[in-house]
Specification:
CATH superfamily of the domain at 6-122: DksA, coiled-coil domain
Zinc finger (dksA C4-type): 94-118
Strand content: under 5%
CATH architecture of the domain at 6-122: Up-down Bundle
Largest sheet: none
Protein name: TraR/DksA family transcriptional regulator
Order of helices and strands: HHHHHH
Radius of gyration: 29 Å
Shape: elongated
Structural class: mainly alpha
Biased composition (Polar residues): 38-49, 164-174
Pfam families: zf-dskA_traR
Region (Disordered): 27-54, 114-174
CATH topology of the domain at 6-122: Four Helix Bundle (Hemerythrin (Met), subunit A)
Length: 174
Amino acid sequence: MTRLKESQIATLKDKLLKEKEEIGRHFEINDAEEQAALTDSTGELSSYDNHPADMATETFERERDNAVNDAFGERLDEIEQALGRMKNGTYGICEVCGKPIPYERLEAIPSAPTCVDDAPKPGDPAGRPVEEQVMTAPPTGAGEARQRNPGRFDDADAWKNVESYGSSDTPATK
């Protein structure tokens, strides 16, 4: 594999700058609609007279907007890093193995910092909740006995057994 040509780098840089500009426009529009307090954004003087679902919908909308802004912010960081690699001469070189990244990959993902072999795979644990590191697997054989003996007593049969002693619908027994 060969290094990227100047014309290829210029094409990819143009792509990155266009995407950066588009993301910048998104943030300009959002800044114009500066996020206000929840009561300000709904136009209500109080949230007490609204149905709880109305406030839940408004909260959901705000959180979705925040998630979109976070995703665009992360994408903007990736673009800035790629432009920085162009500036310092390391663009197109895999950050993990040091081999050249094929032009076709960079054409598809101009901000790619790694080659395909070193790219994070779907399902990689990166970004997973911390709790998963301390979770334990269920005990060995959990549920196996129930599958082998489907006719035996389990929690689903508990009501049948308790009801045999009577319920509020049956007359009291002595």
